[in-house]
Amino acid sequence: MYDTIKVLASQLLMPLPVSLGLMALGLALMAWRCRRAGVAAAAIGLAILVLASLGGVAERLLGPLEARHPALEALPEEELAAVVVLGGGWRPEAPRSSVSRLNDSSAIRLMEGIRLWRQHPELPLVVTGASRDPDIAPVARGYAAAAAELGVPEGRLMVLDWPTDTGLEAQAVREALGEGARVVLVTSASHMPRSMRHFRQAGLEPLAAPTHYLTQHDQTGQLRHWVPSATHLRKSERALYEALGLLAVGWEHQD
Prior knowledge:
Elements: H1 2-12, H2 15-31, H3 35-52, H4 55-66, E1 82-85, H5 104-117, E2 125-128, H6 139-149, E3 157-160, H7 166-177, E4 182-188, H8 192-201, E5 205-211, H9 230-254
Parallel strand pairs: 1-2, 1-4, 2-3, 4-5
């Protein structure tokens, strides 16, 4: 129940639901003859939606999260316990190849994890992630199938297919590798700050290897960067989702 409430709350606090809610409230207030309050609520809702859909706003919201940890070009010459790829999304029943069943973020995470693992193939490649929907197979299984087809030996794969969120993934890795394990942590750049906090709180020593960047700094001078679009709205949503996630991690740790 807690997980359901957490997911629902995070979705309702995204720009689009908030904007639509304010505009609906504005229409209701105008219908109740509270014209001034109704116009104000609708205008605020529209302004939130437009601002969140602008590239300049979205990049400034998401950019600091993605820049928190630098990209990892090569593994350091130090003792490491594993390369860990965090879960994402996939379509297990889709009539596609194993890699194509993974969504964008999952496929890029796995590719980055394998790239780094190939630098030290004696390490285990740990793939994690389940689904909150019991009818959907764990994404860790999809990772394992794709990794095997991409040349990762079965003996080097460690599949943790029960964690349903990042905190549980950190606990699962600690149980599998031991407290204090030094692991290479692969996930989306915007998700990395929250993931690093979870893994450190679990008693692990993560080395950040961010990937799947959404910000595009080279487009800031182009006119289309300031035209509202669903692509920019998605970036704003990602930034707000991760910001809320970081707040939740802090509250859970205080408890």
